[in-house]
Amino acid sequence: TPLDKIRNFSIIAHIDHGKSTLADRLIQVTGGLSEREMQAQVLDNMDIERERGITIKAQSVRLEWKGCTLNLMDTPGHVDFAYEVSRSLAACEGALLVVDAAQGVEAQTLANVYQSVEQNHEILPVINKIDLPAADPEKVKAEIEDIIGIDASGAVLTSAKTGIGIEETLDAIVDVIPPPKGDSDAPLKAMLVDSWYDPYLGVVILVRVKDGTLKKGQQIKFMQAGTTHLVDRVGCFRPKLTQLDQLGTGEIGFITAQIKEVAQTAVGDTITDAKRPTDKPLPGYQEVQPVVFCGLFPVDAADFDKLRESIHKLRLNDASFTFETESSAALGFGFRCGFLGLLHLEIIQERLTREYDLDLITTAPSVVYDIELTHEGGRIELHNPADMPDPNRIEEISEPWIKAMIYVPDEYLGPILKLCQDRRGIQKNLTYVSGRAQVTYELPLNEVVFDFYDRLKSISRGYASFDYEQVGYRPGDLVKMSILVNGEPVDALSMIVHRSQAEARGRHMCERLKDLIPRHLFKIPIQAAIGGKVIARETIAALRKDVTSKCYGGDITRKRKLLEKQKEGKKRMREYGNVSIPQEAFIAALKMG
Ligand code: GTP
C-alpha cells in the first residue's frame, strides 16, 4: 500500500465513554463484521475485559475505507499499563479522542491525551453518546478547548450506540490524520508494539513497520533482546486473522516466529533484518518493572501445586508480572507476586480465581522500598515486609512517590483534599474548569495501594476520576510494624508504614483481630509493635468453660473422644504460642479497609 493511502490511529477515551462500541461500529461500517458478529465486542478478547469493560492488551484492526487502509490500534485505557499505551500510541500518527457528550472530559482522558500530544499526534475529537438526553456537545467542545487546549471546531458528533456519525468519523480520519512517513528502501526497522500467547499460533507479535519490509520467511533480529527468529506468518486482523505475504513501510500487522513465551518479546524492542540490520534502533525502549507486590496463597494448602501451575500458565501470556515462592507461618506456601499496579494485581488475582478455579488469600499489597544499608552494606530492594532488615542496619529507606491527577465536581473537593492530606499528600496544583476541580497531588504510593481508590470513589459517590504516574523514590520515616499474638509475631500481618500512621493502623488491626480470634482458656494479648516497642494493644478475655469439665469423673474414653474432636477442629487453625487462629481471621484481617 502506498504511504499516502495509509492512516494509523488509536482511540483514547476515559473508561466507559464508548471506545469499544465506537471501534465495533467502525469495523461494522467498513464491512469487517456482520450485525450478528457485532453483538460480541470484538476488540476486547478476554472475558474479564468484557465484564469489567477494560481493554488490557493493545490489539489492532485493519479497515478499508474509500481506497484507504485504516489501522485502528486499541490501547489499554488504564494507567497500570501506561507503557503499553505509550508504545501503541507510538505506532500511530493520530488519535480519536472520544469524549462522552454527557460526562465531559475526565482525568484519564487528560493523561492519555497528553501522551498523544507528546507523540506529535493529530487529534480528532469525537463527541459520543449524543443520543443521551443529558448530552451537551457544545459544552463538551468548550471543555476540550479550555482543558485540553486543542481545537474542537471540527469535532465529529456520534452515537456509537445508534450508529450516528460513523461514516463522518471515517471520512474525518482520512482528512485529518496524516499518513505515515518512512523509507521503504532502507533496512527493516519495525517496532514490537505488543505480544500475546495464542494456543494455536504460539506467541503473536504486533508490529509497526517504520522502514523497509517485513516478509514471511525472513530472518529477523530483536535488537534489545539480541535474539534472531525466522518469520513463519505475516498478517493482519480484519478483525478476523488474515495472512499476508508481507507488511510494508507504514503498516501495522502481526507476525509469528515460533516463539514460545511472551517473556522473550519485549514491548518497545526494535525488529530488524538479521542479514541487513538497521544501524539505529528505535528510541525509547524501557523495561517494565513491577511496582506493587503481594503474597498469593491457596486457601487450601493442597492446592499449592495447582496454583503453581496456573501462575506459570498465566505468565506465558503476561510477562509483566513476576513471582517467586514464599512461605509464611500463618498462610503456608504460596507466591510473592509483582504487578504493574493495583488494577493489574486485581486482574491476575481474578483470572486465577475464575479461569483456574482457585480459592486465594491475598496479603496486603505493598510497594517496593529502596533501602540503603549501614556500613557500606549497599542497597537492597525490599519486596516483602517480612524481609525488612534490622533497623540498626538501615541507613535510609526510600519509597516510591506518584503524581496523582484527580478530577472531581466542586462539591466533593473538600473531603478529597482531606483524604489526600491524610495520606501524606503534597498539593501541587488546583484549578477549576466549568464546575469541576482538577487537583494535582504528590503522594507516596504506599498510601495509595492501601484502599485510596475505594475511598476516593465512595467520598465522591463515584464522580471523581483519578490517574497517576510515578515520580521516583524519596526518603521517608518508614518502619516495620509487627503484629504479635500472645507474644509471637505473625509474619503475614506485618506491614511497612510511615511512623506517623503506625499507631492508628496498629490500633485498627488489633481491634479487628480482637473480634476475629476466638476466645481461649487463657487471656490473649494482641499487640502492634515497632521493633521492641508496643504501640497498640488489645486483650481477648479468657474463656471459662473447659470442654473436659463436663466429663469430670466420667470415663476416660469419652474424655479422649472429646479431645480428639477438639483437635480435628484445630486442623484448620494456625498455632501462635498456644493460640489457635482460624484461617478466616487472617483473611478478614488482611481485607481491612
Ligand atoms: P473501556 O473499554 O472500559 O475503556 O470502555 P469503553 O470506553 O470502551 O466503553 P464501551 O464502548 O464499553 O461503552 C461503555 C458503555 O456506554 C456501554 O454500556 C455502551 O453501550 C455505552 N455506549 C457506548 N456508546 C454509546 C452511545 O453513543 N450512546 C449511548 N447512550 N451509550 C453508549
From TrEMBL:
It comes from Stakelama saccharophila. Belongs to the TRAFAC class translation factor GTPase superfamily. Classic translation factor GTPase family. LepA subfamily. Pfam families: EFG_C, EFG_III, GTP_EFTU, GTP_EFTU_D2, LepA_C. PANTHER family: TRANSLATION FACTOR GUF1 HOMOLOG, CHLOROPLASTIC, TRANSLATION FACTOR GUF1-RELATED. CDD domains: EF4_II, EF4_III, LepA, lepA_C. Residues 4-181 form the Tr-type G domain. Its EC number is 3.6.5.n1. The gene is lepA. One of its GO terms (molecular function) is translation elongation factor activity. Required for accurate and efficient protein synthesis under certain stress conditions. May act as a fidelity factor of the translation reaction, by catalyzing a one-codon backward translocation of tRNAs on improperly translocated ribosomes. Back-translocation proceeds from a post-translocation (POST) complex to a pre-translocation (PRE) complex, thus giving elongation factor G a second chance to translocate the tRNAs correctly. Binds to ribosomes in a GTP-dependent manner. This is Elongation factor 4. The keyword Nucleotide-binding applies. It catalyses: GTP + H2O = GDP + phosphate + H(+). Signal peptide: none annotated. GTP binds at D16, H17, G18, K19, S20, T21, N128, K129, I130, D131.
